[in-house]
Design brief:
The protein is of the alpha/beta class. Helix content is 36%, strand content 17%. Strand 19 and strand 20 form a beta hairpin.
Length: 661
Amino acid sequence: MNMINIDYGMLFSAALGFFLLTCAYAAIGAYLSSLTTWQIISALGSFLVIGLLTVIGGLWQQYDFVRDLTYFLFLSGRIEKMLAGLITSKDLIYFLAVISMFLLFTMLKLRGARELKPWYVKAARYAGVVAITLLTGYISSRPALTLYWDTTQQKVNTLHANTQQLIHEMKDEPLEVTLYTNFLGNEREAGMPKNRNAYLSRCWDKYLRFKTNIKFNYEYYYNYDSTVMKTKLYTYVNRGKTLEQIVNKMSQDQEIDISKFQKPAEMAKKIDLKPEHYRLVLQLKYKGRTEFVRTFDDKEIWPNEEGMAAVFKRLLHPEEIPLIQFTTGHYERSYDKGGERGYSIVGSKRSRGALVNRGFDLDTVSLDNRDISPRTSILVLADPKSELSETAREKIRNYIAKGGCMFMLGEPGKQQMMNPVISQLGVQLAEGTIVRANRHEIPTLVFSNAQAAFGGLVNHPEKPVTASISLDAQLVMDAAAAIVPSDTSNFTVTPLFKVSRGAWLKQGIIVTDSANVVFDEKGGDRSKVPSFMLPAHPAEDVYDKNDPHEHEDGHQSDSGFSTIVAFQRDINNKDQRILLAGDADFLSNKRSMQASRWGPHFFSWLDHGDYPLRVGRPAPPDNLLTITGKTARMINIIYVYVLPGAVLLFATILLIRRKRK
């Protein structure tokens, strides 16, 4: 058996946690053994106390006056951070305090058996030990007095340097956090008082390490709006009842004190939460500015570091908040609609990876009726179904001429809608649809392979596309048009994705449910299109070993079809960036997985790397465990049979020897 690049720091932290937990259990057992000469009673008492300290962290958490006490006594929960590689002074002091307390109890018990003292003197000694232990634990648990040691190689338990820098910019100004919990929300349980300590631990512990003056507030209310909430409240059972009657009945059934929840009218006087769909949401307030941080319908629930860091930056630098505007008025695709054509990766507030939850503002603009906002960072023209008016085209031309950044997505069969707009870039969408003979899929479904320039875009979004970094990425495109040069361009043009050999441009209507498509040169099909003049350091294609049409040396033919192209130039003291795609489905809900994975990188490059914030870390190096079947069977025998047998044999010998004595 062999593990590659072992993270010894994490192993040390976990071993220390188990050692301290074992010592605490031993100290508890020693004290209970001093109370009686009956070993069975001592063992049962030890198991009872240890079991109580193991589960007490989840008991009576709904009561404010006992919540912190029971959570403090939660013994096994104290090693969770150590198992993850984070050692804190408050956890170390907690274990030392508990071990010392029970050892002192044992000493007091043995001492009390040898001396004659009034009962109140003995009780005072025990009370003094308990008081000192609790005081020590309370003082050591204060955020300002807590020390941290992240033992992992990649420092996965520590905030990223970019997040730390944002917190440092806040200086000593307080940060106020308010958690809004709706009794009728799907995520209600996570925000209830009984889960408050879990909320603080999972969501805020790593931030309190660097900013201790965070004030936490809690607001509980009930409200319902069928237009924004998924919950179906007015069912047959609740027909004819008012909202208040329904809530009262639900609270009685669930044994919840509804008097602690504010009524809709009372809550409306404080804040309007309808734009947040009355979900479980956090509001951060800093220097009078406020921002919402959302929760999500996944196992983590709470926002991750990237989302939280984006809100910190929005609070600190409101003037730098990027605005993405989607054009409307010609049946374009939208960020706020569901279905296969929608772009939830951009605008769904319920999606953790959506750009609206990663720092961007979103808006729409009808170019026939309104001007493009001066705040606009990225203008998106996504698959218009009707020809743009001259007014709309003129506004886009002026926007590009002034150096605005833009993302344009077209579709085959609609080239006439896009080509008048993109002609300013010196390119066009070639007539026809890229197809490829495939007996497993429809011919219009093609796999577009990343060029090495896309690796540069992903790894260095703050820079123009100049770096060539190999990246194993591939996009599924349900139907794509090829992007070809049509005129000279004053942009640096770089293909990011191409469909390799074996594909061709098919003209006319494509029938996908009958015979296989064939290349028809007389019908206008083309196997080659004009190629782009690549930069001085061209990006090499990434070799797809599973693609039989790739060359063995890892290069694709120059006759490949470009499906996504990047444009860059310096104009009016601006670094202008534009993306053009020959397919609009690759970022849609229809391809949600690849949209979530790669979509944010396109928008990050268009925003010059400012948003989304980069808080990722390199993959842990200890990611390979080599073990043979023979070794696995041997380990199974040792742990399942040998070690338990050895423990049983040792216990038997020990019991026999003690009986003889």
